[in-house]
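Hi,

Apologies if this is the wrong queue. I'm a grad student, and the batch job for Fanconi anemia group B protein-like from Poecilia formosa produced an output file that my downstream script rejects. I'm not sure whether the problem is my script or the file. Here is the sequence I used:
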Amino acid sequence: SNRNVHGLSHGGKILLFTCKRDPAVNVSERSGLTFRSFYFEREGNAFLNATEGATVISRKPSAHVDIVTCKCAVDVQKRVKTAFVLVTKMSEKGSSFKYSLLALRSSHRLEPCIEFKLPYQMKGKVSILQGPTVMWSHDNSVSYTSPEAEGVRKIPIQMRTSHPERLSEPLLANHSPTLGYLCEGGQAFDGSLVLPHPYICITQCMRVLTADRVDDVLRCTVVAATSNQQLVLFENGTVKDTCEVPFGQAEDIQMADTGRNGCLFVVSFKQGHVCAVWKETFQIASCWSDVDSAHVDDFLGCGTEQILLIFRNNGISSGPLEKFIITDLCGISYSCGQGSEAPKASLPPQENSLLTLQALESRLQSGLIVLQELEREVRVKDRVLQQSIQVLTDVLSGRETVLSQPEQEGLVALWDSDEESNDETPDDKLHETPALSSRPKIDKLWHRITEEQLVVGLILTADSAIPASGVSLSLLTEPGQNSTPAVIQTRSQVFWLPARGPSTPTLSSPSPGFAFSEPAAKRSRQHIASDDFSAGRLAVTAVTKLAPLLTSGCVKCRAMLHYAEKAEAVFPGSGPTTAVLHCGEVSLDIRNLCQKPLLQNPQIKTDEVREDLLSLLTVLDNWVLRIDSPDYSLGDIDGWIKRREGFKKIDVSPEYLLLDSPGSSAPMLLRWHQINPFQGDLSIHSSQLQMLQFLDSMLSYLPDSCFIQPVKRARSQSAAQKLACALEKEVLSLREGLSSLLCAKDEEERKERRAGHGETPDSGSAEDLVRCCREAWQQNVEKNRLRLNPVVDAGRYREMVRSISQVKMDSDLAALCQLNQS
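Support response: The file is valid. Your script probably expects a header line. Output copied below for reference.
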């Protein structure tokens, strides 16, 4: 009863699609499409049935339904790789054919994606490409359709009847010249950039490895199988390597990534032959025959890909998979139904791999702590050695030696006299060496999606004794099998929260005279300080753009806390050391993170509302404006803001007011701090357009004589502003230095000219007068030459170079800070 069976691999499973006529089903629902998925179970060394489903293609009993092809392709709208199957239904008279492209949206449901009709039946090569795009050839022309194409379109250039599979930019095979065609843009290009013209007529199948546009020129890497039984590697239309294969009539080329062992090209041929070729060496790795189908996927769930070979004779068409081999040719080999089974690789279970990774991370963290302790001990030993050398030098010179206390160097005496211990006073005990700062304790790790950005926040416990000046948060990508974690570009900020009490905690008020400094690479735009630092909790946030994470497939991030330990700040010659703490992982889920309790009800007091407020303070731009009214009092500005429509008080932090009107593109936060009846500070967190609109309406309420200016805070300049100021200072220093140097030279020349004007020839003869004029003219010529190549004083020149070098060092430091922040 099974006919027209097609299979593919997707997500580590094997999917089987079958057009089936079941007599037991209602007569009106005979022609349907059934599908089943199988997963490999290592314990039993067999494929087990995971899910199954069915869908009705035609309710007419006389309809003829077939499967054309099935393939996995990227759904551009959903940005996921999806399994697609193309089915055809012929009319009763056979005059037209209706085609439907179905997408497997879940494990048990098929949804129609594209439907179109043709007056002919597809008989040539049919490909399902990215988009999805269905492409086929008929009568020396190539046609395609996609959800964006809105119907069937024909490429407006004469082509051969066959075209490469898996190529979103199909090649044209005109004799002169060789052309290529872009389906999306509808543009033609030089096809010799992909394949040289002599290889087009002998190429049987090909696979594009890379394709990029560099300076409006296509740069691509392609591997192709030819009719001369060769596998050829092309780079930008040039042959780079070749490999002779033992079979002819190649049909498909796949690539398997085996991890650190390299990549394999899996070439399928007619008559059931399969050949594997190493990508790095371009040598044959293995060959198989009597193969029904070949698939590449991570069937074992170990993070790398393997090759699945399903053999004929009760193979894929019999339902359960009985004869197969799973191998990566690097130690992994599972087989069933073969005469000589290959030895099985002893792979640890996936959960054991996770435990191993966690153990390695713990060992790495412990090793980092030990290394920091060793560095501290080395610094103490260096200081003790320096003091010992100084003591010996003083003894030889007869000078008195002044030694520091052992406690000051972090040392413990091996012996003490009873008198010294008894003479110790209570005041001396107060000056004991402070204990080394412990690692910070994490209270909560949270994240939000706000304004198309990902905000990751970390709240430390109140007993975490770390300085806020050196705290920042960074994000790392989740490493794959062959990759190392990469740092995600973030911007970190620090906030203070009061310690947990009997009531719900609120966000502490800003302190105008206090600002926290961070490392240059983590410098933030805004900080909120607390008036009670001893009882406050520290909150650190990191913000990054969300779109690059989703497009790169990074759905997990690691949060790393950077903080400065000041354990040795009391010791001479020592400074703070930087430590790193792994705080956990963050998994992105857009459906759950888009819900914001703060915007729904600002009056509730929960941790989620406080986290929403911290996210808005991190993402929104901040302006602090000083409002002065020298002639009249400002009045009740706080009440005027609250009376405006839409502003609501946030109960977790009552000093902030929230505006979330439907017409605005983003929420707006306001805070008014009254300094005196004639002066106050207004903090605005919003977009620049919202800020200008609010100030425009506020000016109608304020007295006419008042003026508004931005508040200049210490360390509040951005890296770009600091770089601009440093460059301006460098230019001014260079101009002023050269001007002063040349002006001093000109002043000396003027003095010489004034002194020379008093000299007159003793004799009034014409010869003496001509001689004096000639000498004066020669002196002027020499001075003009020296003015073009001035000779200045060496001491003044060295002083100018020293000052300009110092200014240039400041400019380089500001440029480095800007580079780290960007």
